[in-house]
Design a protein that fits this description.
mainly alpha
């Protein structure tokens, strides 16, 4: 799952949210200096990723992309799934997406001192271009895929994946919907144990 899903699956716990968001920037166990619940957010993120990577539904979505994008197909699926979460946000939350995202950006700014350097570098662009809110729109997803392709020095060709999303839109959306229900239950169970 990508940014929006990890934030959402932190269940409004601010420290868990920070940990869940920054987890991809933390290697191994180099997080022991962080507050305890931020550490737990990192572990929750890893549990979510493990569940997602081993689940058959995202594998179906990924397989549809694998011929064109190889090992990048899983990253693309994460981005697609965040699109469907954002697009169907009112199904999952009573808080409007714009409010939810603005509150998250405020939370990042409030916790700036403990953020990893990579997150600090990315943050101004993410906020000024409102990446997370714009996941709901196809042009927002196209911009994300273009940015990811640039980061791979154009090797991934991820920028073309917007065409795959358009072509197989209903299939990806139904896979997301089925999978996300299971992921929400799994994540809530893990969250309760934190």
């Amino acid at each position: 799952m990508n940014f929006l899903a990890h934030i959402y699956l932190s269940f409004d716990d601010e420290e868990i949210t920070i940990g869940n968001f920054i987890a991809d920037s933390i290697r191994g166990n180099k997080f022991k200096h962080l507050p305890e619940r931020v550490q737990k957010g990192i572990l929750l993120h890893r549990d979510i990723d493990t569940f997602t990577d081993s689940h058959p539904i995202p594998k179906i979505s990924s397989k549809r992309l694998h011929q064109n994008y190889s090992h990048y197909s899983r990253v693309i699926v994460d981005i697609f799934y965040d699109h469907f979460l954002a697009k169907n946000w009112e199904t999952y939350s009573e808080v409007p997406l714009a409010t939810f995202v603005d509150d998250f950006y405020d939370l990042l700014e409030d916790n700036y001192p403990i953020l990893p350097d990579g997150v600090k570098r990315m943050m101004p662009y993410m906020i000024s271009d409102n990446w997370i809110f714009n996941y709901a729109k196809m042009d927002g997803i196209a911009r994300v895929l273009n940015g990811m392709n640039r980061r791979t020095k154009n090797r991934s060709k991820m920028n073309f994946a917007i065409l795959d999303l358009e072509e197989h839109y209903d299939a990806f959306e139904s896979e997301f919907t089925a999978f996300f229900e299971e992921l929400r239950v799994f994540s809530k169970q893990k969250f309760i144990l934190l």
